[in-house]
Every structure is written in structure tokens, then in C-alpha cells.
UniProtKB/TrEMBL annotation, chain A:
SMART domains: Robl_LC7
Taxonomic path: Bacteria, Thermotogati, Deinococcota, Deinococci, Deinococcales
Protein name (database record): Gliding motility protein
Sequence ranges assigned to domain Roadblock/LAMTOR2 in this UniProt record: 16-109
Annotated organism of origin: Deinococcus indicus
Pfam families hit by this protein: Robl_LC7
GO biological process: positive regulation of TOR signaling
InterPro entries found in the cross-reference section: LAMTOR2-like (IPR037587), Roadblock/LAMTOR2_dom (IPR004942)
PANTHER family noted in UniProt: LATE ENDOSOMAL/LYSOSOMAL MP1 INTERACTING PROTEIN (PTHR13323)
UniProtKB/TrEMBL annotation, chain B:
Cleavable signal peptide: none
Coiled coil spans: none
Native source organism of the sequence: Deinococcus indicus
Keywords: GTP-binding, Nucleotide-binding
InterPro entries with a match to the protein in the record: Gliding_Motility_GTPase (IPR052705), P-loop_NTPase (IPR027417), Small_GTPase_ARF/SAR (IPR006689)
The protein's name in its UniProt record: Gliding-motility protein MglA
Length: 161, 196
């Protein structure tokens, strides 16, 4: 296994969801995602007023790849890591910050939302999420049996002929 | 190891198309994108140069459906094949669950095939993965080239022990594309159910 895999379970998942929801409400951020380092969405929340989000799979993949490329750059430059990324456009901002070693908090917000405020509250949320993820480290891996494999193979036949 | 999101009940698997430059990795993904119904796939993201050479990666998410309550999804990636993009290739191999190695049948690409396979082994090793621990399927592409080399000769430089499942393909015509993807997906799912 190259990258640590995360499994977000019931209660922990809801707590992470709630932390992101609170962050959105406090700061006015439009979309909040927790993405693992492999580029999969672990959790996502959007503000009530927000329009339909862009394809989240694509956002997560690009954010994780960007973070991986930035980390490789950091290593080349003798840094342990560059923990945050900010991309500011004319109308909006994408802000990404590491949550421990396994995941990335990704926030997308309008230009009217002050970046400083988002960063301030995001740091607090990251501490909370990191603590929840830490609790999950001791959970035994999920067991999927033979039935799963058979069911999945039948679907593969449907999808790919 | 695939990412399992229990609360959302999702299983996500990452499949990477590897191989030398211009061997047809992106063409494989484009064919899948064009043939799979829209509700079962997401958008295809291509980070390519102006002349359509892959710069970082191509990405295509596929929805398999729900298995035992788990929404199961494959993320397909290609790597840039050109030799000097190795840093990018290494990044894309992070968290890989299955690999399709796309080899080129052209005689003047025989060495490039061999070098790309060696590069794959090295990159996996750098991530601490034994090449035998990841399901790999071999696709020998461009079989319709008039001077295509025999598959046995190509295999002898990339898989001399004959350990990998091999598919012949013409990815621009869609031949062999789904067979290859189906086999690697099946191998990934088998490993998943064995909890490896």
C-alpha cells in the first residue's frame, strides 16, 4: 500500500460532516470537501444557497494530484511539505490545507469571503477533523467476502460486456 | 488498498494505464468514455499539452453500481509516457490498485516498451510496492500496424516469464479495450474480496 487508506465510519463520518457544515456556516464558504491523498472524496458539504457544484470526482482528483506535485516540489527544495495551497481567481478562491498526513480539506468560496477569516476558522476545523481521523486508525479493516466479488463481477459484465 | 468510505458506503479503486509515449493509453480512456453510458461515468479530465500529449494525467471515473450496499467506483488514470515526465508518473502511481501496461507493436518502440516496464518496476519499488503485489494486465496495442512485431517478441522484453495476462488491441478502433479493462477490474475486485 503506497498511501494510507482512510475508512470513514458511521459516527466519525457524521462528526466530520458536522465540522465541515459548521465551517461553511461560520465563514460563508460555498463548498467544503474532505479529500484523501489518492483523490477520493471522503466527505462533502455545500452551502444551502450554493448552485450545483462542479464534478466533485474531478475536483478531488485534481486537488490531490496538485497536492502531490506540490509536496514533491517541497521535497526538492528541502522543505518537509508545503501544507497549504491557495488559488485565487477573479470571482472565487480555492483553498486547500493538509489534515494530518492522510487527507486534504478543500474549500471553495466567493471573492466576497475574506481569505483570512476562512484560514482562521479552517485551522480550528482541521484540528477537530484530525482528532477524529486519529481515532479511526485503530479500527480493523473492512472484510468483504466472496459474495462481494461475485456481485461485482456480474456488474462488470453489465458495464463492460 | 482501495479507499472504503463506510458511511457513504462507497468503495473506490484506482486503475492506472502505464506504458511508453504514444502507445495508446489516452486512446483507451477515450474509447471507454465514448462507449460507457453517461450516467455510469463522470467527466473525463485531460491535462495535456497543445499537441495532445499527456502532460500530467487523464482521469475518468466509472460507476460500477452497488454491490452488497457498497457503491463501487473505478477511477481510471493514464500517465504521461514520455521519458522526462517521470516525476509525474511516480505521483500518479500513488495508491494504485491495478495497472494496465499498454505496449506498442511498432518495431522501433520495442526498446521503449522495455524501458517503460523497467521504469514501472522502479517507480513501484520506490513506493515500497513489489510488482507482484499489484494486479497488472498487459495490452499489446496497435496490432493493425503493417509491420507489427509478433506479440511473443514484445512479451519477451516486458514480461519474459509470461506471468501477465495479455490482450491484443487496436485501441483507436476499440478492439481489446473493454476486455483489458474488465480483466484488470476483476483482478482488483478479487484482491479486495480477499482483503489484501
Amino acid at each position: 500500500m503506497i498511501e494510507p487508506s482512510l475508512a470513514l465510519y458511521g459516527d466519525a463520518f457524521e462528526r466530520v460532516d458536522q465540522v465541515i457544515q459548521d465551517l461553511l456556516e461560520t465563514t460563508g464558504v460555498r463548498y467544503g470537501l474532505l479529500v484523501d491523498r489518492k483523490g477520493f472524496v471522503l466527505s462533502h458539504k455545500e452551502a444551502l444557497w450554493a448552485p450545483r457544484p462542479p464534478a466533485l470526482d474531478s475536483v478531488a482528483t485534481l486537488v490531490a494530484s496538485n497536492a502531490a506535485a506540490t509536496a514533491a516540489l517541497a521535497n526538492m527544495l528541502g522543505e518537509r511539505t508545503f501544507s497549504e495551497q491557495i488559488h485565487q481567481g477573479e470571482n472565487g478562491t480555492l483553498y486547500v490545507e493538509s489534515v494530518g498526513t492522510d487527507s486534504l480539506l478543500t474549500l471553495i468560496f466567493d471573492a466576497s469571503v475574506p481569505l483570512g477569516k476562512v484560514k482562521l476558522y479552517a485551522k480550528k476545523s482541521i484540528t477537530q477533523i484530525a482528532a477524529i481521523l486519529e481515532e479511526l486508525k485503530d479500527i480493523p479493516p473492512v472484510q468483504l467476502g466472496e459474495d462481494f466479488s461475485q456481485g461485482a463481477n456480474a456488474l462488470l459484465d453489465d458495464l463492460l460486456g | 488498498m482501495s479507499t472504503i468510505n463506510f458511511a457513504a458506503r462507497e468503495i473506490n479503486c484506482k486503475i492506472v494505464y502505464y506504458g511508453p509515449g504514444m502507445s495508446g493509453k489516452t486512446t483507451n480512456l477515450k474509447h471507454v468514455f465514448s462507449k460507457v453510458p453517461g450516467h455510469l461515468r463522470g467527466e473525463m479530465v485531460s491535462l495535456a499539452t497543445e499537441d495532445e500529449r499527456t502532460l500530467f494525467f487523464d482521469f475518468l471515473p466509472l460507476d460500477l453500481g452497488t454491490v452488497q450496499g457498497f457503491k463501487t467506483r473505478f477511477h481510471l488514470y493514464t500517465v504521461p509516457g514520455q521519458v522526462f515526465y517521470n516525476a509525474s508518473r511516480k505521483l500518479i502511481l500513488r495508491g494504485v490498485d491495478g495497472i494496465v501496461f499498454v505496449a506498442d507493436s511498432a518495431p522501433n518502440r520495442l526498446r521503449a516498451n522495455a524501458e517503460s516496464m523497467r521504469n514501472l518496476r522502479e517507480n513501484l519499488q520506490e513506493h515500497g510496492i513489489d510488482v507482484r503485489d499489484v494486479p497488472i494486465v498487459l495490452q499489446i496495442n496497435k496490432r493493425d500496424l503493417p509491420d507489427a512485431l509478433p506479440t511473443a517478441m514484445i512479451r519477451s522484453v516486458i514480461d519474459p516469464k509470461g506471468e501477465l495476462q495479455l490482450f491484443e488491441a487496436m485501441s483507436d478502433k476499440g478492439v481489446g479495450v473493454f476486455e483489458t479493462l474488465k480483466t484488470v477490474s476483476r483482478l482488483v475486485l478479487e484482491r479486495l474480496s480477499q482483503n489484501k
